[in-house]
From TrEMBL:
Keywords associated with the record: DNA-binding, Phosphoprotein, Transcription, Transcription regulation
Residue ranges constituting the OmpR/PhoB-type domain according to the UniProt record: 131-232
DNA-binding region, residue intervals: 131-232
Name this polypeptide is given: DNA-binding response OmpR family regulator
Source species: Pseudofulvimonas gallinarii
Sites bearing 4-aspartylphosphate, chain numbering: 61
């Protein structure tokens, strides 16, 4: 069973245009908790320094002055090992969902309580060391569900909404899961504007990423009039 060591120190990049919040709040809290931290006022300065400072975790303000934090998250997501925490002054559920579907691992509204910020970062750090667990020769997820493992032992880091879907599909492997059940995993009770077609978008993206990671098609099938089926857990 393979386990990746947690890096020491864990490096965090903070891209936040509010200088006081960045330099007087976020960075001191993170450094106090033992993290190596670098701050950036915009997306451009973050990109310019990624060659010399490679973070394990990036904290992004959604409203950066030169590029949307959502767009930055999509760019950074090409490195599946990087963890992304988005911050926003917006509290609407659709805004949080947009952050998660654009590649964020977690999404918090400002002002962020210190204990919640620290707990969220600690959760992302644990994902840097997520061991592979599960029966050999079967599709499974790792210990905390953030990594899908193929029967051949190849890995795919899951995004937040993908993780919810895969957990439900694997739990019912071999049995179709109705579309409404899957949609409800992504829907908040107060989210009247939820677009059900988002389910198809997420599954399309998951299939595409899985094909690249596993070198084979994910055994996930649409069942007409019902929903989706993870066809097998066996290798």
């Amino acid at each position: 069973m393979k386990t990746n060591a947690i890096p020491s120190p864990v490096r965090i990049a903070v891209a936040e245009d509010d200088e006081i919040f960045r330099e007087k709040v976020l960075i001191p809290i993170l450094r106090k908790n033992g993290y190596e931290v670098a701050g950036f006022p915009d997306a451009g300065s973050l990109y310019a320094n990624l060659g010399s400072y490679t973070p394990h975790i990036v904290i992004l303000d959604v409203g950066l002055p030169d590029e949307s934090g959502l767009a930055v998250a999509r760019r950074l997501r090409v490195d599946p090992s990087m963890r992304i925490l988005m911050l926003t002054g917006l509290r609407e559920v659709p805004d949080h969902i947009r952050g998660l579907t654009n590649g964020a691992d977690a999404y918090l509204s400002k002002p962020v309580p210190e204990d919640l910020l620290v707990a969220t970062v600690e959760s992302l750090v644990r994902r840097l060391d997520a061991p592979e667990q599960g029966p050999v020769g079967q599709w499974h997820t790792d210990a905390d569900g953030w990594r899908l493992v193929s029967p051949a032992g190849r890995n795919l880091d899951l995004m937040a909404l993908e993780r919810l879907l895969i957990a439900e599909l694997l739990k019912n492997a071999g049995t179709p899961v109705d579309r409404e059940t899957l949609i409800n995993l992504l829907r908040n009770d107060d989210d009247a504007d939820f677009d059900p077609h988002r389910l198809e978008m997420i599954i399309h993206r998951l299939r595409r990423r899985a094909s690249g990671a596993f070198g084979a098609e994910l055994p996930l099938r649409a069942v007409r009039g019902i929903g989706y089926l993870f066809t097998t857990v066996q290798g």
